[in-house]
Design the sequence.
């Protein structure tokens, strides 16, 4: 046997002695000598409450304890030999004081003295090891506490990430819904709303253009001061930091999905809503008002109201009420509710507004559709004033 082999053998012996120097680890070996135990059962049987302490002692018993094919802890062959040595020493220590014969006592006096000296040395070594183990255990507890804090932070980050993913999925669904929406053809005269029999009348309210877009303003899951006076942000879009040195641009005012360049609006958050912009022109003239034509044509006398929105310089003016219908993929009408808390400098949809001869106005509808499964958009005249006597 070479010198390196002797050193390796001495190292293994030292590891075994170190493993057997703690009474808790001897208790673990004895428990496993009776039956194979899982981690939780081993803690319960030995009375060790801390998982960190149990894991620490098991690491010290590496080579003496192993796991079987079911993942339970059992004694290795080396562990069985080590436990047998411990039990031999215990039996010797227990049987020696019970021998009362004088001759046997003197014959074994040297063995007893040696055992006492060995036990004394073992007690000293155990005291030193206990102090060391206590220090190691305290350090391990601090490490476990730091790991728990890190896990809490990771869980919070994961919740924020999941919330943001859900919001991005919602924005993608809104985008797809807008792409699927078919707008009515422009450059045509609008008809009245069909009755129950499908009958309608063609008017001279001309549809110049239409547009639709969704507004989505989620509550972001980050604690961010968007508009800090000391930073002087010049844009509502800010880069929000994420994990792994990544970031994503988010808008404080939410996302507009679609073509909203032609219309002014102001949203106040809440659920995502659909905005439909309609630009119409009144092609009715004095001829249509009864000057040699139909005396019931929908042209009224000029009315000046206090609101600038309703004022007009035309001699002939109509009061118009537009309505929109959303059609689903299967052809049915999708119910909608008028969105609340919306302010706009243009006229809101679903309300009557004055429209003078040859005058053009933009109308915006703010709606909560009951479904995003929108296929088509239809625009009708739901009300049109007639001529005064």
Sequence:
């Amino acid at each position: 046997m070479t010198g390196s082999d002797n050193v390796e053998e001495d190292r293994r012996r030292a590891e075994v002695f170190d493993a057997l120097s703690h009474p808790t680890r001897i208790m673990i070996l004895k428990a496993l000598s009776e039956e194979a135990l899982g981690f939780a059962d081993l803690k319960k049987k030995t009375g060790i409450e801390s998982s960190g302490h149990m894991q620490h002692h098991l690491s010290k018993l590496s080579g003496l304890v192993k796991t079987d094919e079911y993942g339970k802890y059992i004694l290795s062959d080396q562990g069985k030999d080590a436990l047998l040595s411990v039990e031999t020493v215990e039996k010797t220590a227990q049987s020696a004081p019970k021998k009362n014969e004088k001759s046997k006592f003197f014959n074994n006096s040297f063995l007893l003295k040696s055992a006492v000296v060995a036990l004394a040395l073992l007690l000293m070594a155990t005291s030193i090891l206990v102090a060391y183990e206590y220090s190691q255990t305290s350090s391990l507890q601090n490490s476990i506490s730091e790991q728990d804090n890190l896990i809490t932070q990771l869980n919070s980050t994961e919740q924020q990430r999941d919330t943001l993913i859900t919001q991005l999925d919602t924005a993608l669904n809104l985008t797809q819904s807008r792409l699927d929406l078919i707008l009515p053809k422009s450059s045509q005269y609008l008809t009245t709303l069909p009755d129950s029999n499908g009958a309608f009348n063609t008017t001279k309210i001309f549809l110049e253009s239409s547009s639709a877009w969704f507004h989505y303003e989620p509550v972001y899951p980050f604690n961010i001061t968007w508009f800090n006076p000391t930073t002087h942000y010049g844009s509502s879009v800010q880069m929000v930091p994420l994990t792994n040195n990544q970031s994503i641009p988010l808008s404080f005012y939410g996302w507009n999905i679609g073509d909203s360049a032609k219309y002014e609006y102001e949203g106040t958050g809440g659920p995502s809503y659909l905005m439909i912009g309609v630009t119409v022109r009144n092609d009715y003239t004095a001829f249509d008002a009864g000057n040699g034509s139909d005396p019931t044509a929908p042209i009224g006398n000029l009315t000046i109201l206090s609101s600038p929105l309703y004022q007009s310089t035309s001699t002939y003016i109509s009061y118009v009420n537009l309505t929109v219908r959303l059609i689903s993929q299967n052809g049915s009408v999708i119910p909608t509710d008028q969105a609340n808390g919306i302010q706009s400098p243009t006229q809101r949809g679903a309300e009557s507004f004055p429209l003078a001869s040859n005058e053009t106005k933009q109308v915006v509808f703010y709606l909560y559709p009951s479904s995003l499964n929108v296929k088509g958009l239809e625009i009708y005249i739901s009300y049109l004033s007639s001529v005064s006597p």
